[in-house]
Specification:
Blueprint: H1 2-16, H2 19-34, E1 44-46, H3 56-70, H4 72-83, H5 98-126, E2 131-133, H6 143-172, H7 177-190, H8 197-217, H9 221-241
Parallel strand pairs: 1-2
Helix pairs in contact: 2-7, 3-6, 5-8, 5-9, 6-7, 6-9, 7-8
């Protein structure tokens, strides 16, 4: 009983310091958006913004600090796993299957990423989502590298914690796969709620897919690769295409 309570408290601590806290902020932000008196599509959800306008070197330093701090919860997970006699490799965060992980991740990114873009365009057109702006960084040499690092940081944080770690711990608690999958998907959707209904629904569906694949494969790496590829395409693609194509929503 003591060990179970310790693991339960550990899970609460990890999420309270990371994605759980993000979910609370996202909910408050969404309430603010829907009560603002403005249409959701006229409002912006900015993902990667400048942190020191007009001061590119300070901006770069702040970007790197925020990205580094963003993966601290992953090290906390690694610590907790080690303390319980496990490792990150226990949830499939290791380079032991590079070819299989790479193929699975690339295929998953193509399917889920394409479907996710389509869903976003449909929901945005319906007026139920904010206009998502993946980046507004200054046009300097570090713009693309920072966007790629941001994609990697997002993927590492989310897939290690909300897919691998959470589902691993819930299985140890005796939860059924379906119940654990539902909670994992709900949490994934909830911390994207600041984007609107589409952000919540699309990421919850992604959570169901990614979570089920983790339960089947027992490996986070394919999910991490897929997520990194999807975010990289979204961030860099927006940087290159915004204002040049008519189908991509931009702030008005």
């Amino acid at each position: 009983m003591t060990e179970r309570r310790t693991l339960r408290d550990e899970v609460w601590l990890v999420f309270g310091l990371s994605l759980g806290a993000s979910a609370v902020r996202a909910l408050v932000s969404f309430i603010g958006s829907v009560t603002s008196g403005r249409s959701l599509t006229s409002q912006v959800a900015l993902l990667n913004g400048t942190r020191a306008p007009g001061r590119p070197w300070l901006d770069l330093a702040l970007q790197l600090v925020v990205l580094a701090l963003g993966v601290v919860p992953v090290f906390l997970v690694a610590h907790f796993l080690n303390r319980s006699g496990e490792r990150l490799a226990t949830i499939g965060v290791d380079p032991s299957e590079p070819r299989r992980d790479g193929l699975r991740g690339t295929a998953l990114a193509a399917v889920v990423g394409g479907a996710g873009l389509g869903l976003y365009l449909i929901v945005h057109a319906s007026g139920a989502n904010l206009t998502v702006v993946p980046e507004n960084l200054p046009a300097v040499w570090w713009r693309i590298p920072v966007l790629l690092l941001s994609a990697l940081q997002n993927a590492t944080l989310e897939e290690v914690i909300v897919a691998g770690y959470l589902l691993h711990r819930l299985k140890q608690f005796g939860w059924s796969d379906g119940r654990a999958l539902g909670l994992s998907a709900l949490i994934r959707g909830s911390y994207h709620l600041y984007q609107g209904v589409g952000g919540f629904a699309g990421n919850a569906i992604m959570g169901l897919i990614f979570g089920r694949l983790y339960q089947r494969w027992g490996r986070v790496m394919p999910l991490l690769i897929a997520h990194t590829l999807m975010d990289s395409v979204a961030f860099v693609g927006y940087a290159e295409l915004a204002g040049h194509v008519g189908w991509l929503p931009t702030p008005k």
